[in-house]
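SAMPLE LOG
Freezer: B-3
Tube label: C17
Construct: single chain, 335 aa
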Amino acid sequence: MMPHDRRTFVRGASALAGFTAFGLASRAGAQTAPPLDVVKIVTGFPPGGTSDTLCRRVAEALKGTSYTKMALVENKPGAGGQIAVQSMKGAATDGSVILQTPASMLMIYPHIYKSLAYNAFTDVTPVTLACVFDFGFCVGPAVPDSVKNIPEFLAWCKANPDKANYGSPAAGSVPHFIGVLLGQAGGIELKHVAYRGTQPAVQDLVAGQVQAVSGPVGEFTQQAAAGKIRFLGVSGATRSSFAPNVPTFAEQGYKDLVFSEWFGFFAPGGTPASVVMRANEALRAALAQKDVVEGLAVMGLEVRSSTLQELATLLKESYDRWGPIVKKIGFSADS
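STRUCTURE (predicted):
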């Protein structure tokens, strides 16, 4: 098993402090570097979803800047986002390759896989937080219109165990575990169907091929507004500004089911400090642009950039929180 214990993270945080100090000293040199010809932003999910949209908005904002002449998005879906993270191993460390990934691949996967093809703290280098978002739980036409909230859905599932299923963007992701925890809270096992991203799951939801889907709130808003699917609940501590009329899980009696997630930008492991600092400045400037903020809001994403130290700390805290949750659920991706 790869070394993902607490000592690994403490050593990583200490190394990052020295890394950052050097980066600050190197900033002036980084700012005089000529623009890169092409920057490639890699995402582990297919076109059309929140991760892809975030990458494309940022790539457009990076074009023609002092950082790069051109920015492209490369979709590498599969293995629940692992393939994209794994591709950072051996990738160029000159700032021309940037990974954008949801937190699950780094904060949860080390707990559920006995062996990963990457190390979440040595094969990637934190650059900046990108955005935060909540999750929604929606049903489609395969569930009667009389089902309007989570308790009613769980009761319906108990009465129809052969139809008690839900989809999520990946096995071992936060949306997957939300469904497991909801089922446990209701005393029923909800059968999980893993998809390659949320949009394929939503397509099946609209078509009545799956009863429910757990995924980022922004993935559902368009179809919900059209009346094709129905929100039953959201995962945040407060109601989502993107679905203000939808009660949280906590409001419906599930006090422990409060979850949000984040997307972050990472450079390949071993990227020089000056390069990381330059990428941080460029990405934060792109994320601050009004059209980027407004465009991502349409997808239910709240832009929130950070220093690289803040992202490293957030990753460690997220990892530490999910260890006990995964243990309670008892899920292993290798079983």
